[in-house]
Amino acid sequence: MSSGDSGRHNALVLSGMQALGGANPALVVALSSLVGQQLASSPELATLPVTTFNLGLALGILPAIFMMQRIGRKQAYLLGAILGIGGGLLATWGIYIASFTIFCLGVALAGCYASYVQNYRFAAADGANDEFRPKATSWVLAGGLLGAVIASQTIIWTSDLTPLHPFMASFFSQAVLAACVIPLVLLLRAKSLGSTSRHTGPYQGRPLKEIARQPRFIVAVLAGVASYGLMNFMMTASPLAMIGCGHSITDSTLGIQWHILAMFGPSFITGNLIKRFGQIPITMIGLLLIGAASAVALTGLSVNHFWLSLILLGVGWNFGFIGATNMVISCYRPVERSRVQALNDFIVFGCVALSSFSSGQVLAKYGWDVINQGSFPIVIALLCALSWLWRHESRSPASHTTTA
Questions:
Q1: pLDDT digits (tens, 9 = 90+) for 216-275
Q2: Is 159:249 a contact under the CB 8 Å cutoff?
Q3: Transmembrane residues, as ranges (predicted)?
Q4: Which domains does the chain have, with CATH numbers?
């Protein structure tokens, strides 16, 4: 079988793994703040579980890369699934004994699992040829479409199963979904996943400082931070804001479902759009849509306002984050991939962890309007940076070309 066929096979399998793994953060975001309200000693700590999830994700990235180097991506993804099972079970136990600390630890472990899930898109890209690479990334992220449905339906079916311990069955289901990833991992073709092994001969890659000083890399990472950070900042606060406005848990859950569908739905065409219009323009459109989501949220507090804002936020994240991811991929050579990917994800998800924690603080102290108003200066600053980079590279087209 040709390497191209193996690359497509793995991208399809990784898409299925993303569907199950993508349900993990969706369930955490939809329910953790509500569980936090019940278990935490202060309303300002309600979003702390989402923060610990993102912190677990950020801190798990470097160990995940290390394990991929030592035992290969396939075996490391099995380890990630086991962490997901453990996280779901620990969070379930925390709810059962009403321990906010244990619940947060379980959610943090689920975040460590997510650090492996985040690598799926890089595995698909690394195993694809140049022509298929943008589509491979989009295929994997498109698996999140099914993940959104799985997460929301899991919540709807399980939230009332344990009335004495709200949402306990939902987090137990989180462990079951992680277990379902294992058979898919076994279907991966390890030779076509892209190498993450340590370089055994004379190292030919550039120093990490040299790569990180590239204008394209700097702007790409900042765009990824802005796209993911703003999305997470607003999405984390949305369930609490909806409940605070008198809307039901079902309305809140469905809002998160529509949001996640919007996050991953465009992935079927995002790769083609990037090939046709370029990485920078698509990233800019994504940031504009995030700004539009904030504008809609500021115009009203009805269910429709929340839902439309969440949908725009999801599409904006898709264009912004996939565009920024492809910008990062274009900054390194194959021998440099593991270190650059780890640096990018550590920065992005470290900032995402900060955004989720500050989201609860800002919502409790200043309200929903300030949550949305804060996105405008960040969007404007990144649009200026991307415009500058676009003009700079237009004058010197070879400046952003990386060769193997």
A1: 999 999 999 999 999 989 988 898 899 889 998 788 878 887 887 888 778 778 888 998
A2: yes
A3: 46-65, 77-94, 100-117, 138-157, 169-188, 217-236, 256-274, 281-301, 307-330, 342-364, 370-390
A4: 3-187+208-400 (1.20.1250.20)
112: nearest Cα among 84, 143, 92, 141: 84
Q: Which residues contact 300 (CB under 8 A, 6 or more apart)?
A: none
User: pLDDT for 363-393, tens place per residue?
Assistant: 888 999 999 999 999 999 999 999 999 998 8
CA–CA separation, 185 and 376 (whole Å): 41
DSSP SS3 for 328: helix
Helices (H), 127-278: 133-158, 168-179, 181-185, 208-212, 215-244, 249-264, 267-277
* DSSP secondary structure letters along 214-228: SHHHHHHHHHHHHHH
Q: Which of 15-19, 157-161, 355-359 has the highest mean pLDDT?
A: 15-19
Closest CA to 323 of 394, 226, 195, 391: 226
The residue count of the chain comes to 404
Helix (H, G, I), strand (E, B) or coil at 178: helix
Of 6-10, 94-98, 130-134, 274-278, give the lowest mean pLDDT range.
130-134
Phi, psi of 396 (to 5 degrees): -135, 80
DSSP assignments along 49-78, one per residue: HHHHHHHHHHHHHHHHHHHHHHH-HHHHHH
Nearest to 322 by CA among 73, 18, 110: 18
Res 333 pLDDT > 70: yes
Mean pLDDT (the chain, rounded): 86
Give which of 362, 380, 224 is closest to 288, Cα–Cα.
380
What is the rounded distance in angstroms from the CA atom of residue 28 to the CA atom of residue 7? 31
pLDDT tens profile 63-122: 998 898 899 899 999 999 999 999 999 999 999 999 999 999 999 999 999 999 988 877
In sign, the C-alpha dihedral spanning 222, 358, 315, 379 is negative
318 in Cβ contact with 227 (< 8 Å): no
Per the CB < 8 A criterion, the answer to whether 360 and 240 are in contact is yes
Q: Which long-range contacts (CB under 8 A, 24 or more apart) does 332-335 make?
A: 332/211, 332/402, 333/205, 333/206, 333/402, 333/403, 333/404, 334/126, 334/194, 334/195, 334/404, 335/199, 335/203, 335/204, 335/205
